[in-house]
Structure formats: C-alpha cells, structure tokens
Amino acid sequence: MGERSKVYMTDLRCRPGVSLLNKLEKLMRTAGIGEINFERKLVAIKMHFGEPGNLAFLRPNYAKVVADVVKSLGGVPFLTDCNTLYPGRRKNALEHLDAAYENGFSPLSTGCQVIIGDGLRGNDDVEVPVEGAEYIQTAKIGKAIMEADVIISLSHFKGHEQTGFGGAIKNLGMGCGSRRGKMEQHAQGKPMVAPRRCVGCRRCATQCAHGAITFGEDRKASIDWDKCVGCGRCIAVCNTDAIRPGNDAAMEELGCRMAEYAKAVVDGRPQFHISLVIDVSPYCDCHGENDLPIVPDVGMFASFDPVALDQACADACGKQPPIPGSHLDEQMHREGFCDKHDHFINSMPDTDWRVCLAHCEKIGIGTRSYELVEVK
C-alpha cells in the first residue's frame, strides 16, 4: 500500500466568538497552504458561481476567506470559472459575470477580481498534453486558468446526475474545460429517447443549446446525434425518464475524461484544494434551482491531493443518514430499489463515481488512500 495523503477536516460547530469563516481560515493554514510560495504569484481560485435561481452554491463569504489568505501570503488571487455548454446565464463571459455578480461574487464582496477563464464566447483556451491519458490527446483548458501560477479549487461538494457527485476533480476537470473542452468530455454520452415514455412536454428542447431535439407529428422527441454534444441536460430535466444515455459505458468514460482534464489543470504547478460538504443537493449547481439536500451538512475539508479529498468527502457523506423526503430517500423507497450501499449511486443509479477516482489514481493525480486529520 502506497503512502496516504493527508486530508484535513473541521466540523461546522461554532461556539460564541468563532465563525465558520474563522474555521475555514484555520483549516487552510493547518493543512499547509503556507508551504506554497505565493509571493507575487497569480492565483486562480476555481469555483462555481451558481446558476441564478440556485441557492445551494457556496456563499461569496467563503471565497473572500480564501482570497484573503492568499493575499496575506503575498499572492494575487482571482476567482474564475469557464463558460457552460447548455442554455442558461453562464454561456458567455458577459452573462456569466452578470450571474456571478447577482449571486454576490464581485471585487467588493470577495476582495479580488472575477475572470471568466475561457473568454467572451468560451473559445479562449490552451491545448494541454496529458501524460498517461487514455481518452484524450490534449485537454482544452481555459487560457486564464492555465496562465495562473497557482491553482486552488474551492468546491461545493454535492450530487451530480452524470458523475455521481461534484467535488474537486469535477471542479477542476469539467469546470476548467473551455466550451469545446466540455464538448470533448461529454462527446461519448449521446442520449436516446424511449418514445413510449415521452409525453411531448418539450422541456428537453428548451435545454438543448444545439437544436438537436425535434418533435414529430406524434409529439414524441427525437435526437439528432450529429448535432448533439452529449451534455446531458435533457436527461436531467426529463420527468418521465424518457431520455437516457445511449451508451452504457458513457458515464464511466465521462468520469475518465474528466480525470484527464483535471490532470491537465494541476500538473506541474502548485495546487491546493478545499471542499465544503454543505447543502449536498442531488444535482449540480448548474441547475437554476436546488433540491433538498440528500444528507445533513458534514464540514469543511482541505488537502494538497484532490483525489484523496474527494474520497474523504464521499466517505464522510456515506456515514450520514439520508434526509427524509429528499431525492435520495425517494429513490431508496422506489419499487424494485436495489441498495448499492452508497448514497451517491443510490441517488443516481446510472452513475459510479468510483470509476473517476480510480482513473485519477491510475494516471497519477493523487491517491484514494488518505489520513483524516481533524482540526478543532
């Protein structure tokens, strides 16, 4: 067994006189962020600004703590994310910045600038070779993120309809990919329609940015795979389960491609990773709404190893009881439910997050083996 990575964790209890923001700063410093040479370095703090309407995203107060710590160590931080593939309010830099400001992320509230990593239309990227990659040749990463000297991921740990959960690896891999980078990661997962389940509500079509979904005289949806990029938004919004991945291995391959993209982002430069396991909603913060959390809030975690960090967060969630009435609870009470003994797989039965972390380990991003250090 190889050497274990250290993952630092603090709970959410706050006695009078100590805030969660104080605890986050202490967690970062105890976990060793001061070991990085930040002096005059440009520091990308990669996070998700939340789709407007969603209220589960991380508050900007947390981002300010991270930025302030970086500045205290001599660095020049900026908050960043890349544009999205799907319709919404973050598909170009202008709308993305408006969404970020609406959700409270601005230089005034966070103490640093907000920069959209892949430019105005999501085309400003850098092709980065990935050593040991099996699925991609070069990762297409937002240029501003690759030009930074140091990368810090600040992640909201939550469920996800295609990757099981979204943590540090998803924040880095999918989140740092430009629009064409996101296309490349999703490309193998093109969905199919089960006509007998389709009720012709057209919700799927409103989510398709590429005009791939049309309706026949029978009001049933059909998908043009030549236009489809496999982003999966139609799957997420279908209330009747009429749209499903057309390739059983697609979600597993998505996890592996995402791992390779994450490696492109972190390889060869200083890195540090923080995940907050709070408001663990079943779906991504890319949704314009958020559902009831599937498990209770757990705490805040930090590590130099994003793989160990994701594993520790998943393990911590696994020890929590499902919240009654949540998506997870409903799934577990469905007729024919088969218990996979994992909250994220039980919540989204077509996913298996373990494939991604195993591939991360295989290509040398980090290790799933960790030592948990509690910070009081």
UniProtKB/TrEMBL annotation:
Annotated 4Fe-4S ferredoxin-type domain residues:
189-218, 219-248
Q: Which UniProt keywords apply?
A: 4Fe-4S, Iron, Iron-sulfur, Metal-binding
| InterPro entries per record | 4Fe4S_Fe-S-bd, DUF362, PSI_iron-sulfur_center
> Keyword tRNA-binding on this protein?
no
Any GO molecular function: metal ion binding
Task: Tell me the cofactors it needs.
Answer: [4Fe-4S] cluster
Question: Is ATP-binding one of the keywords UniProt gives this record?
Answer: no
What the protein does comes down to: Ferredoxins are iron-sulfur proteins that transfer electrons in a wide variety of metabolic reactions.
State what protein this is by name. Ferredoxin
* Annotated organism of origin: Flavonifractor plautii 1_3_50AFAA
Question: What taxonomic ancestry is recorded?
Answer: Bacteria, Bacillati, Bacillota, Clostridia, Eubacteriales
